[in-house]
Predict the 3D structure of the following.
Amino acid sequence: MINSFTKPRLKGEILLSLRLASKNEVFLQSTQTIKWDNNMNSIRKAKELTVNAKTDEEKVSAIYRYIINNVKYDYDKKNSMSTDYIPSIEGTLKSSQGICYDYAALFAAMLRSVDVPTKLIMGYKNDINEYHAWNQVYLKDTKQWVTIDTTYDSIKAKGKSPYAMIKNVSDYSLLKQF
């Protein structure tokens, strides 16, 4: 099936037509916000973590566990952010720390590199008072998008509180998606 998206022409604008084999294909690509390529250490790590995975859910779980157990929240970085900040996937992996935007970009890049469509979402979570970033992941086996918050779970995992990988979407308010 081919999807076609067209933007009507207005003065000074150009016609854009995009044909994709799947509407989720766009969430497998490298973008400015989620910039990755196969030569990156983070992408090699994703492939290593998922080498024996048979399903998308197994891939997601392996990368999720790696991130929540190895990346720490950087409270100092949060307080010194500029408004034009874009995450460095390799920087987050190397330093093993970041803010929610870093966690979500790293998770998205790693999953996209192993063919799991992933969105980076920005908005608000019901029990966090600040702007937040998390992910939505498409599971082909169940044909559904699920909400996963590696930042939230990384902090909870450190405190050994019980948590579930897949979150209740109603706890989140989406403002932007990449």
Q: What stands out?
A: The domain at 31-177 is CATH 3.10.620.30 (C8orf32 fold). DSSP finds six helices and nine strands in the chain. The radius of gyration is 17 Å.
